[in-house]
Amino acid sequence: MGSAYLARRLGSAAITILLIVFVNFLLFRAMPGSPERIILRGTPNVTQERLEAARERWGLNDPVFPDQFVGFLTATASGDLGFSFVARGQTVSEVLAQRIWPTIILFGLGEIVAIVVGLALGAYSGWRRGGPLDYVGNGASLILYSTPYFLLGMILLLVFATTLGWFPSFGMLTAGATYDSVWDRLIDFLAHLALPLATVALGLIGAYAIVMRSSIIETSSDDYVTTARGMGLRDGRILRRHALPNAMLPTVTLIAINLGYVVAGAITVEVVFNWPGLGTLTVEALTARDYPVLQGVFLLLSVSVVLANLGADMIYGRLDPRVRT
Amino acid sequence: MTASELAIVRRPGTSRAIRLGGLIRNLLRRPDGFFGLCILVFFSVIALVPDLLVGPLQTPVTGLANDYPRLAPPSLEFPLGTDELRRDMLNLTVHGARVSMVIGLLATVITVFIGAVLGVISGFVGGRTDSTLMRVTDFFLVIPTFVLAIILTSLIRDLVGSATTQILGIRMTLIVIVIVIGITSWASTARIIRSQTMSLKERAFVDRARVIGAGGSHIMSRHILPNVVNLIVANSVLVFAGAVLTETTLSFIGLGDPLQPSWGQILESSREVGAASLGAWWYFVPAGACIVLVVFAFTLLGSALDEMLNPRRRARR
C-alpha cells in the first residue's frame, strides 16, 4: 500500500477525532450552570472563596482558548473523561467500561450475521434479477430498511416472548437466578441474547442487501463477466469467482459509513430489551441529565466509528490496487 | 428522455406550473412514484384535518370518562383500542400524523436549506473555503450524529427552559428537535449539491454571465441555484424520510413531548406501559405501521424522483 495513501487516511482520521474532541469541549462549555457550580454540586455551604478556589483549582480562570482546550485535549487523550454526575465518585471511564461489553457482544454478532446473510441475499437477488427471490427479497429489504430498529424489536418481543413465550423478554441474565454450571449460565445468556440479536441483524440485513444487490447488478454487465460467460463457465462459478469479489468492494466502504447510523439503532434496541449496554446507559444518563456520561458515550462511539472507517479504507486499499496512489 | 424532462434540465425559465405538471404526470406513470404519491396524499390529508376526522386531541384530562376501559383491545366503539389513560388510540394515532409530518417537514426545510447553501458556496467558490466546508461535512457524515442530537436536544432544552411559546402550533420542545435535526443532518445534501455545482460552474452560461460582469453571488443565486432545484427536490423527499425516522427515534428514547404526541411519542408511551409484554399490540402496531408506511413511501418516491431528475442517474439508464 502506498505510504502517501496511508498518510492521507491517517491524517484525515486524526483531524476528525480532533474535531470530535473540540465539539465535546464546546458542549462542556455550553452546559447550563457555570462550571464551578457543577463541580461543587451537592457540596454544602458554598462560599465565594470556595467558588474562587475551585475556579483556580480547575483552571477556569485561564483563557478558554488555547489553555483550557489544550488541558481538555490532554485529559481526554489520557482517558480522563471527568466524573459522572449521578454515580458519585465514579469516573466516566469506569461507567463506560462496565457497559461496553454487552454492546460489543450484541453488535459484533449482529453485524456478522447481517453481513453474511445480507450480502448473500443481495448477491443472489441481484444475480437473478427479476426472479421470484429478487422480488420478495428486494421488497422485504426495503421495508426492513424503513422500519426503526426498536419497532422491529417490539414486534419480535410481542410475538416470540409474550405470545409464544419462547424467549425471555428483558435483561442479559435471569434476575436472581443461580446456576448449577457455567453451561446453564451460558444457555440463559444465549436465550436472552436471541431476540435483541435477531432485531439488530434484521435491521441491518435490509441495508446490506440493497447495497449488495445494486453493486452486483452493476458488475454483472461488466466486460469480464461477459467474457466469463463466453468462456462457457457455469453460472454459479461466474458469480462466486468473477462477479462477487469485485461487487464486494463498494460494500466494504458502505458498511463502514453506515456504522454511524447503526449506532442510533443500537441505542434503541437495547432500550426495548433492557440490554445493559451503552444504549440503555445513554437513556439513563439522558433522563438524569448526566452530561459527562453522555459526552463520554458520544466520544467513545464517534472515535470507534472513525477508526472503523479507517480500517475499511485500509482493507479497501489492500483489495483494490487502483486507490493505492 | 422525453421533451418535458428536457425542459426541466435545460430551461430554468420555463413556467413552473408546466414543469411541475409534467413531473407529476411522469411520476404517476411509474409504480413506485404512484404508490409513494398516494401515501403522501393520504397522510397529508390526515395531518391537515385531524379534528374533522376524530375530534380534538384527547389528553389525560379530556380523555374518556371513568366507566370506559383502560388498555382495551380494539372494538367497534374504539377501532384501535384504548391506552392506559382511557384515551382512544385512533384519536392519538391520527393526531400523531400531524405532529410527525409537521416536524418532519420543518426539519427537512432547515436541513435542505443549510445543505444547499453550503453546497453551492463550497462548489462555486472552491479553494480553501471548499476544503474547510468539506472537512466539516465529512465530520458530520462520519460521526454518529444521532448521539450528538441527543446531547444537543437536552442541552438546548435546559438552556431555553420550559417556555410555553408555540411556533406554527408546535410547542417549543418540539421546535428544538426540529432545529437539532436540521443542524445534524445536512451533510449528505451539501455533498450532492456541491458536486452538481462544480460541474455547472464549468458550463458556458456561467462563463457568459461572468463575462458580462455578473458577481459571484448573482451567478450563484440566478444561474447555479435554478439548475440544482431538481436535485434539491429529489433530495428533500429522502431527507424527509430520514427526518421522520430521527424524530421517531428521539421521541422513543424520551425526548418527545407527551402534550403533543407524535407517532414516536406513542411508541415511547407504549414501551413505558410495557405494551409489548402485556400483549397490547394495538398500542404500538398502528403508529408503527404509519411510520414504516411513510418512510417506505418517501424512500420510493425519493429514488423515483432522483432517477427522473438527477442527470447522472438518468444518463446511466
Structure, described:
The complex is a heterodimer of chains A (325) and B (317). In chain A, helix 1 crosses helix 4 (64-77), helix 5 packs antiparallel against helix 10 (235-273) and helix 7 crosses helix 10. The longest helix of chain A is centred in the middle third of the chain and has 39 residues, at 182-220. The relative contact order of chain A is 0.14. Chain A starts with a helix and ends in a 6-residue tail after the last helix. Chain A contains twelve helices and no strands. With 325 residues, chain A is mainly α. Chain A has helices at residues 3-30, 35-39, 48-57, 64-77, 92-127, 132-146, 149-163, 182-220, 223-230, 235-273, 278-287, 291-319. Chain B has helices at residues 3-10, 16-29, 31-48, 50-54, 89-125, 127-142, 145-160, 172-184, 187-201, 204-211, 216-255, 263-273, 275-278, 281-309, 311-316, and strands at residues 166-167, 170-171. Chain B has 317 residues and is mostly helical. Chain B has 15 helices and two strands. In chain B, strands 1-2 form a two-stranded antiparallel ribbon. Residues 1-15 of chain B have low confidence and may be disordered. In chain B, helix 3 (31-48) packs across helix 5 (89-125), helix 5 (89-125) packs parallel to helix 8 and helix 11 (216-255) runs parallel beside helix 12. The interface between A and B is large, with 52 and 46 residues.
